[in-house]
Amino acid sequence: MFIFANFIEAIAVIIHYILQIYLYIIIARALISWVNPDPYNQIVQFLYKITEPVLYPIRRRLPITSYGIDFSPLIVLLIIFFLQEFFVKSLMQLAYNMH
Predict the structure, then answer these.
(1) Number of structural domains found in the chain
(2) What is the pLDDT at residue 99?
């Protein structure tokens, strides 16, 4: 049974790191949006390609404020924090209880 517990723990750690990396990517995307980035820059294109599938559905449902502020990165960050605090910790606790 400890092998399955270690497997679940490893999955939880991998999910945690993936969420952490995506958190930094979302922050970079939000920071880049404050300046006028070159749309042909490969880094900018990469950031848009990797974040737009997550940001677009949220942006479509949220109205943009009269000041033109996009709150979709903030919503995604809150979702990532929730997943880290609830889902990853639940997996870790499950693995701990199985030992």
Answers:
(1) 1
(2) 80
